[in-house]
Design brief:
Two copies of one chain form a homodimer.
Chain A (H helix, E strand, L loop, with lengths): L5 H5 L5 H15 L6 E2 L11 H13 L16 H11 L9 E4 L2 H12 L5 E5 L4 H9 L5 E2 L2 E2 L2 E5 L18 E5 L11 H14 L2 E5 L25 E6 L1 H4 L7 E4 L12 H12 L5 H10 L2 H27 L2 E5 L5 E6 L6 H12 L1 E2 L1 E2 L11 E4 L4 H15 L1
Parallel strand pairs in A: 1-13, 3-6, 3-7, 7-8, 8-9
Antiparallel strand pairs in A: 2-10, 4-5, 9-10, 11-12, 12-15, 14-15
Chain lengths: 404, 404
């Protein structure tokens, strides 16, 4: 008989967001009348902008014509889109052939684990997006689960006490360092100086940084870096993962990219990009051609204007939530250069799932328990600013009524 | 410094199709005037049918409306599409919740390797689609490459001598058995009796069959099984992978599916579907919502008619190629219930790449060398029937002129 892959058995049955949905459904069974508002999963809610939707529809219709039809494209993506990403979003700090188009950051993160295999040691921010660790567990790069996370993973606490940036001097060396800025879930954005320290640390340790920049366009302070490649020397130590999901509402359309610089090499001198290319040509067949035409439209002049408007809408939501939480006596972080607000009640020692349950039961508002993002997330909740304005306003009103 | 993943180093640099493109480009450098016709890679060329393209375009436009917008959907796919696949394509022999929608069979095959991990032993048809072996190499389930394939992989010769079905009585047990029918590249279709033997063999050995049915709709003989689930007992031993790519020309749109029956379990009793669900929710985020609406349209009455017409077009191409090759003194197989023709010259002992080069140089026709599909493919070429009719006719004319 076929044995179960022992690495899969290590993963707890509940990935964070399915567990939230389970609790929400259970609550609705007992309170079918409740109108639940979700500030939980970071799922986009606003319609696509007309320009981008038109480009998608045009690309689809065009596939029904002989001159417009296309079958398999380059697994690495449409050359025009790779070029546009390099020029518009990276201002030429990377080359188009270093951009690999994908069906989203989560999928790329899964493939990146395959790139490094089960021998690679990893460090993650704590708290952070669960996929870095779960993906490493799947490939066998970690030990078993404990109360303090998975054995073999270096958790780098990022808390209010250290201003959400790890103390690098006390950290052991790892092969990979996952780093997400603006961070999901804390909303913290690393400064240029901090990222310089991180790049220097990676250089000194001969580590590779996997930099998740999925929320970079939410950064409005001009001194804060939007890409790791704004840091000198990053091209020798960093891969960057990003996505159109939270830029233009493509969570369902599926489009992202990954930057693997030609200058990033293994210890034997082999360029990492060579193996990455082998992986994307072997077990991936490119992002949907329709989605890629939407991405192209998002990067022209009109698309950029519309993208900014979509992001501004979400950021206004974030400020509404942040202000309300501060006023209600929460310690609240993020929500300025990020769509996420990271909050705990001042002067209380309580478990994340307990506050989650309380808000669900008293306000019918779904949040995300901070403990799901790592051991240092315990006691916090993540509030997502993705939602219709009136829902966000109503959620905030309910919280004001029940928590004041 | 980070070490290179040793499994990646095992893979030869050239995946078959990039190597073909390289030779084609090199030929064009020296013969810029040549009008090359490709019967090589199985890439679709005909425009999408209007009904399906309209559904795609409508879905895209609908995303620009508040009521039509959707963000993250279920990672497993749209419930309506899962249901329609179970009913229309499987006539109810599987349940909708056993269907997992994906961005294509190749991508699913990559994730399936992750499901079983590096401990799983594998068997493949020889010749066969290279991704089964390459994906296994990536995950570390094989040894090094040799002249006769990768160590640790059981190659099951499928040749004219055994009527393209392996002699199961001489085979060792493996955890996984990859089986593709209609086979890529040979075009051979396993009979019901043969698949009954295969299922019995898997049961006896407590193996899992990964059945690739990507070309099943090309089967026209009603006695030949289109799905492994037409065989009694297959629900306990088989996963089926399939795709819209060659059904409706979605090679660029990206849409496929995978069937994991609830009744398929590991030796500890854990349902395989539980782990598969964990994988698709952890490192995959669902197929593009636009593509899924195209898949839905393909499965309604009009879509089914159009799908049949598209397949009939390709199959007519296949018969043209097959007839010409037979007439030219080739041993030619497939091309009846399959878009591929598998051929070698009668009475000659020659290498696949040599015939490939000869046809490229004399006829400016690109084929696929059979040796790229496994050790038993040496000496053969695969001719793909995907192409515009006039190109296929011209390619055949050229072959008649140069080879006669």
């Amino acid at each position: 008989m076929v044995h179960r892959n022992p690495h899969l058995a290590k993963l707890a049955s509940g990935y964070l967001f399915p567990e939230i949905n389970r609790r929400k459904r259970e609550f609705l069974v007992h309170h079918p009348e409740a109108k639940i508002i979700s500030l939980g999963i970071g799922n986009t809610t606003e319609p696509l902008s007309p320009h981008i939707a038109h480009a998608l529809a045009y690309a689809a219709q065009h596939l029904a014509t002989r001159e417009g039809y296309s079958g398999y494209g380059d697994e690495q993506g449409l050359p025009a889109l790779r070029e546009k990403i390099a020029h518009v979003l990276y201002k030429g700090s990377i080359n188009p052939d270093e951009v690999f188009i994908s069906d989203g950051a989560k999928c790329d993160l899964g493939r990146l684990q395959l790139l490094f295999g089960c021998q690679a040691t990893i460090a993650v921010q704590d708290p952070t997006y669960p996929v870095y660790v779960d993906g490493s567990v799947l490939i066998g790069a970690t030990g078993h689960s404990t109360d303090h996370g998975f054995k073999g993973v270096v958790y780098m606490p990022c808390t209010p006490e250290n201003n959400f940036f790890p103390n690098l001097t006390t950290l052991p060396r790892t092969d990979l360092i996952y780093f997400c800025s603006p961070n999901n879930p804390t909303g913290a954005v690393a400064t240029k100086k901090q990222l310089e320290q991180l790049v220097a640390f990676a250089k000194q340790n001969k580590s590779i940084i996997i930099f998740d920049a999925a929320y970079s366009e939410y950064i409005e302070e001009p001194t804060l870096p939007k890409s790791i490649y704004e840091i000198d020397g990053a091209r020798e130590v960093a891969i960057e993962v990003s996505s159109f999901s939270k830029l233009i509402g493509f969570t369902g359309v599926r489009l992202g990219w990954c930057v693997v610089p030609q200058t990033l090499c293994y210890d034997d001198g082999t360029p990492v990009a060579k193996d990455w290319n082998r992986i994307v040509t072997t077990i991936f067949n490119g992002a949907s051609n329709i989605a890629q035409h939407g991405g192209l439209a998002a990067l022209d002049h009109q698309g950029q204007e519309e993208m900014k408007a979509t992001i501004a809408y979400t950021k206004k939501n974030a400020r509404i939530i942040r202000s309300a939480l501060l006023e209600l006596g929460f310690d609240a972080y993020g929500g300025i250069n990020s769509p996420y607000i990271w909050a705990k009640r001042l002067g209380k020692t309580e478990k994340s799932w307990d506050i989650f349950n309380e808000l669900l039961e008293t306000s019918h508002v779904v949040t995300t328990p901070g403990s799901g993002f790592g051991p240092s997330g315990e006691g916090f909740l993540r509030f997502s600013a993705f939602g219709h304005r009136e829902d966000v306003e109503e959620a905030v009103q309910r919280l004001q009524q029940t928590l004041r």
